[in-house]
Fold:
Amino acid sequence: MSDLAEQNGLLDRALRRVTSLWRDMADRVTGSDEETIEDQMRACLAGRGGEVSARNRAAKLAQAYLGLDTEGRIDFLRVLAGFDSDPAAVRIAMERVADATDPEELATAKGRLRRALEPPRVRLLTQFTTIPDGMKFLVDLRAEMLRLMDGDKRLAVLENDLKGLLANWFDVGFLELKRIDWNSPAALLEKLVQYEAVHRIRTWRDLKNRLDSDRRCYAFFHPRMPDEPLIFVEVALVKGLAESVQRLLDEKAPVQDPARADTAIFYSINNCQRGLDGISFGNFLIKRVVGVLGGELPGLKAYATLSPIPGFSRWLQNRLAAEEGGKLLSEEEATALRAALPPPRDAEAAGGTAVVAAETPAETLKRILARRGWFREEPVARALEPVLTRLCAGYLLNEAASSNPKRARDPVAHFHLSNGARVERINWRGDVSEKGMKESAGLMVNYLYDPARIEDYHEEYVGEGKRPAATAIRKLARGWA
Amino acid sequence: MSDLAEQNGLLDRALRRVTSLWRDMADRVTGSDEETIEDQMRACLAGRGGEVSARNRAAKLAQAYLGLDTEGRIDFLRVLAGFDSDPAAVRIAMERVADATDPEELATAKGRLRRALEPPRVRLLTQFTTIPDGMKFLVDLRAEMLRLMDGDKRLAVLENDLKGLLANWFDVGFLELKRIDWNSPAALLEKLVQYEAVHRIRTWRDLKNRLDSDRRCYAFFHPRMPDEPLIFVEVALVKGLAESVQRLLDEKAPVQDPARADTAIFYSINNCQRGLDGISFGNFLIKRVVGVLGGELPGLKAYATLSPIPGFSRWLQNRLAAEEGGKLLSEEEATALRAALPPPRDAEAAGGTAVVAAETPAETLKRILARRGWFREEPVARALEPVLTRLCAGYLLNEAASSNPKRARDPVAHFHLSNGARVERINWRGDVSEKGMKESAGLMVNYLYDPARIEDYHEEYVGEGKRPAATAIRKLARGWA
Amino acid sequence: MSDLAEQNGLLDRALRRVTSLWRDMADRVTGSDEETIEDQMRACLAGRGGEVSARNRAAKLAQAYLGLDTEGRIDFLRVLAGFDSDPAAVRIAMERVADATDPEELATAKGRLRRALEPPRVRLLTQFTTIPDGMKFLVDLRAEMLRLMDGDKRLAVLENDLKGLLANWFDVGFLELKRIDWNSPAALLEKLVQYEAVHRIRTWRDLKNRLDSDRRCYAFFHPRMPDEPLIFVEVALVKGLAESVQRLLDEKAPVQDPARADTAIFYSINNCQRGLDGISFGNFLIKRVVGVLGGELPGLKAYATLSPIPGFSRWLQNRLAAEEGGKLLSEEEATALRAALPPPRDAEAAGGTAVVAAETPAETLKRILARRGWFREEPVARALEPVLTRLCAGYLLNEAASSNPKRARDPVAHFHLSNGARVERINWRGDVSEKGMKESAGLMVNYLYDPARIEDYHEEYVGEGKRPAATAIRKLARGWA
Amino acid sequence: MSDLAEQNGLLDRALRRVTSLWRDMADRVTGSDEETIEDQMRACLAGRGGEVSARNRAAKLAQAYLGLDTEGRIDFLRVLAGFDSDPAAVRIAMERVADATDPEELATAKGRLRRALEPPRVRLLTQFTTIPDGMKFLVDLRAEMLRLMDGDKRLAVLENDLKGLLANWFDVGFLELKRIDWNSPAALLEKLVQYEAVHRIRTWRDLKNRLDSDRRCYAFFHPRMPDEPLIFVEVALVKGLAESVQRLLDEKAPVQDPARADTAIFYSINNCQRGLDGISFGNFLIKRVVGVLGGELPGLKAYATLSPIPGFSRWLQNRLAAEEGGKLLSEEEATALRAALPPPRDAEAAGGTAVVAAETPAETLKRILARRGWFREEPVARALEPVLTRLCAGYLLNEAASSNPKRARDPVAHFHLSNGARVERINWRGDVSEKGMKESAGLMVNYLYDPARIEDYHEEYVGEGKRPAATAIRKLARGWA
Structure:
């Protein structure tokens, strides 16, 4: 609901800004006022009046779209989706391909078939790139389609067409890497605040701390959307692998001398444009930033992330709830956990530890994790650390996505492994924010990017499904059921 | 021959500049040194080692290409052209389209067929966009293909693929309009000198004169080729329609106050990148510049060109040579022409004008035009003016391209008419340079861009083949055989 | 105390930023480590080792200064002040002036005397301009002198020298006017927040509201202190004269279309650099901004301020406390005020209004003004409005500064009147913030800048002490005791 | 004569550019049209109408000045020079200084005397800084004064005042170092062509060669004259000390890889603004550029010039003409020279070498140097090389300026020695251009800037008059008469 509002908000703000430009262009369109949306689209495609006229028509359509409510927008998109390729032309072109006898004839026939297959709606979508802020309009349009389509196959086809176009236009070769710091325009920094979803930016002071001299922030931009970051990464320049995001974000911590840092920690990567979902640049961003940092700071010896494990808690709860949950931890571990806990009041009242003793290990673990703020109870935390760390190592290295047995179940793990990183270290109490406790049981991971091995690791993971990890992690994950 | 050298020169200069970057990238490619070009292309497409690795492979291929001689380059391109779509996959995909029963199934099948038809060579060409100066490499590559293909259908198919990609990337929505003046980088101005082909820039002083305060120069740029103009237009701000390009380019003429100009004369438009042939921006450029100038200089009332008529002389010579040449001018006109000429010495010697009198009108005209510097002989020029002007009006308004009866025979006329301009005036002795005399018999045309009628004119010409013109021109062209 | 801390803070921040640069330079100074500050100054003046060496010495001195505590800094400055001109040289040069017989000899002698009079400490101060951030160092140094000198005549002389140098360097001809908006660097906007003292900026949202499309903000910068605004003005584009600063600063108020505004309201002007006290640019800033706005927004018809009256409350309290306070308001006014008040509880208890009736009018006014939040009590406010407005008009137009009988007592009034503005309107409840109530009894003034009359008004005020005002204001101020 | 024209040209071009701005400002000055220049100056000083009005008056004066012919300009300047300090005020202020008893009183009295001595003309000159392009106006004004004053003591005093002001404003701390290359604006490069006086730039190709990747060009700019270089230096990045300027400027020589250069050769330094004569930045420029180059190109090991010896030929001719010329070279040297020459035809005719034998050594040398193109006659050149090289070494190390016995007679030698360079090498046939042959007998010098010794050398030369040189040079110069 709030997402919907926000998304509408994005389009509507764009509306305000470009509204007068679009209105001026729309006013120059000659033609009956009673034209339906479909008529207008048809006229736009017919190209009457030349390219300038077509541009004005596109502006008129864009403005019309923004003026509609949700129902109206869905109708608009369904009409647009209806501009499909001509079946007869496709059939004839297919026949020519089938009948072609020599290679040149075949090549020509195939070229024609490709053109016959190109649906007019794709040309119409392309028209929007010619109007001011047209690229942002299309990106936001796809974001809206993703939200609205909800099983509507007609819209799905249109969304797929648009995704193809955007993938083409947002090819990484077109992107510009820019550094963002405290001298960047406030309007841009405001967008960072809005788009940062991994570790929310709470105040301008928090933001300033993330842009200080011992920090770096880089984003990709597209020349046709110059005010909009596409993806950005926040980096801390530190000594040794960082283990706690709370310490990294502590505004009162003294500023470090970046020239003395030996490690660059990528602690937050955020995609900014929902409309570019599935068109990934994260991979390139990290490698480009590694290159830039290495050039600027020769003291850097290691590049690593400090990452959440967003699927860990849910997976653990599911396993504990399921029958085989019992296999997750041994009776010895459970006993140690129970010993660390103060005796439950009820239990005491009821005559001692008998009730508790009847618990299965899984029940014990569930009971402990249900305690609010357990991570602050030192004895409990001490007992939990080896258990959760071990389970986490197993989760990261052994558990597979339901869709693909070679793919890590955790989405962040999958992202970094497919980029060529390896699992380097699991950090106990790495993120004790509410979100960190809820999603990752407070744990965080360092994924290490070793420039010399990125390609090998990438190949091993993508090709064979191998998940590279530090020896200690590998040991922990061994003997997994 | 000199073009060839020049074209090679362009690529080779690019080579020098990016050579070290590409070499560094190529050096990072792992793989046997004995790989053939085809192996390398295959590896590049296989995507082993991730996108960064693919980029390095693309750099290696580009560098390899530049290292080849003409023979080698043709081989390279033929190998590349061979990476075609898989016939079996295409057949299966076509069958699915044919067999689809419901609309959704059909949409999905068509999508698959489009993907199956996409030849791998297109993906390979796209890879080059990811390397430094890769876009310029591709543009120059197409320029080279156009030169080398020479009937080779395999290369023609590849060239066509590349044209499609470039048309997509150089969509006018991606272009940036920039003003060029005497404060622009010398490196850029040097390129203007190099690319100006309509009225050659002879010296830096000539160039400076064209960038003075009563002149404007605008160019389109692409964000991925930021140092390279794609097309540029030179504009003079004057009072009334300009009639002579020599007067416009006179370096000693006093500088006018641009605020007092009432007319903007577009006197030179140049495409800079041969590799973008057939992907037109000239249309948009003129209209954008009209918009910009109108905003800056409210005194401007008219926008017109001062254009050559490059096909006029050749057409005239052909007609005069052909039998029906006699119909081009009347006996009265011929008599007037003869009277303007001094009696030929031989004729005199041979006893008077008898010989001349036996000439057909066409022969008389041919004889006169063969006189070097006739335009400086006042009596001759006076007699020729009405004849040539009339013939030129007819040529512009009545003669059709051999390929298309609705299309003006003169290419410059076709360009401006299809942009929505009209033929406004023919200028006697408008360009008396050697080139102007040879191609256009010294004549120039003003094509008028009337913002209020551009679209109507465009439609009339493109739709119905009507050629809008000022009344005087229309009268001259009437009664044409 | 907080000022002191702040001022130290400013210097110390500068210290951190440039510290490494200065340290590097200082390290290159050759010379004994036991040199006293005085020795170092002497060496710096002697110019041994050329200009580069002198620069390093200046950096060393600046760094030494920043390393000192308050005592040490005072000593440093006193040593520096001691580098005075040579008495003997001055005496001889004076004699030559006295003895000069012809004009040329006199001119030469006077030139020599000027040079003889120039104290070496001035050359030493000038040296600091050559080091990185040296200009900011000198500006902050003067700020510190102003704070520390406290009657010390030696420091006063030095401060006066530095003021003369700064006045020279910060001549308005050297300043650059820049617009500041939401696209400005966050680091700069942060400084606005820090320097805004008239109407404090509470949050980034407040700031953003002040930089929205219906607002303007302009600042002067100096090329040698490019990151530091010297003075800035905040402008609202509105319809009609603004009457309430709370309404102007309301973040929830809808954004207006600037093209429809007819009035530019200058509602906050802030000097940013204490070290430039007495070197005024405010005058120029307003006139430059009037020029810029007039060019950009042809709809603007009036330029006015919405200004506090910072001396009004204090003056009123003083007058009410003094004997002649009784003349400030009439018995009728006092009666009306009393009637508007609810009967005091004690008075009621003591048997009615008798006690109150015994009050003088001055006592009544004092009693009312002492009521917290009186401006929200409608009957009280209604009764007070004519009284306070009348008193304010008199204060602005009739009361003189103790130092100068021709000068308005209120400093803000003096500033605008000497710039050529006139008193246009007094706004009841124009600023009901705590500060506004305390200093100005909630009143605000519009000073009108009429471009056609600025010079006349300026002359009248500066020359004859006339204070231009709207008729209504003049009437109110008439009949003043 | 051509200088005069050029100088006028400079001012007049400025006139055209700013004319409309100044005219608009001048038009806003209220006041009688019959005001004399003196009245206008008086009004400008009186400050009536505030600073804005004063600015308009300054613009009016500047415009008036530019409208005058040479006579009128001299009158204008003499009137301006007449605005002298008030003699009575100076007398009183001097008395107060004389009578001051305690230090504070003295300090105050001296401050007042300084103010009393400041002539109003200085304030008037300062006013011009507030108008657009005012700083350039003042710089060009001083250039014109230097040309026009010609012994006029009144103008000399004014020129001296202006020099003092300019020295203050153009303090090196205010200057910005910028690199100039082929991507710099053509308008700026055109100025390089205009200002280069050491080795004239003949064509744009020559210019481009000097800005290629193995060259560097740096200039100082002032923020108030942003389009005007003040001084620039051209640098070649080479291997080993360069010995021939013709080789450096050869456009056909292959471009070197700057990363492999070990030596930076400063081969041309040009002051651009005649109006800044005597206000030197060359010193700082070289040292700043040494710093910048060292940072960018770690391979650089040596920094040296390749400099002309502009006074050598004239000095030599004078010495040869004078009686003691005979001591310049020995009879042995003369004999060797004579042997290298072909026998003179006349001599031959007259019966052999008898006539020649009667020559003194000085006459022989004179005779040889009078031969056009002697440097191309190998035997002659071989014989001359040791003689001229030895004489040049002596000239550089032993000969003193007439004004100062500690100062090198050659102005370029003096410049580099006082900057801390040493005489490193004399290059035979280093500059065989017409100018080089005429002024320096074809010789050039390398002055070496050794960063580690710059300060010592500077001190030795400035303090004690020692001229540091390489051992070989010192040996050559020894035993000098």
Remarks:
- The beta strands of chain A are 176-179, 215-221, 231-238, 263-271, 302-305, 400-401, 404-408, 422-427, 444-449.
- The domain at 3-84+119-169 of chain A is CATH 1.20.140.90 (Butyryl-CoA Dehydrogenase, subunit A; domain 3).
